[in-house]
Amino acid sequence: MRVKLFDFELPPELIAKRPLGRRDAARLLHVGKDFADRVVTDLPALLRPGDVLVLNDTKVIPARLRGIRQADRGTSRIEVTLHKAVPESAAWDVFARPAKRLRPGDIINFQGSDPDSKLRAEVLERRGGEVRLRFDRSAAELPRFLENLGEMPLPPYLGRPGDAQDRDDYQTVYASNPGAVAAPTAGLHFTPELLAALAAKGIEQQLLTLHVGGGTFLPVTSDDTDDHVMHSEWGEIGSEAAAVIAAARAEGRRIVAVGTTVLRLLESAVAGDSVQPWAGETDIFIVPGYRFRVVDVLLSNFHLPRSTLFMLVSAFAGRQRMLAAYAHAMAERYRFYSYGDCCLLERAS
Question: N or C: the chain end with fewer CB closer than 10 Å?
Answer without folding.
Answer: C
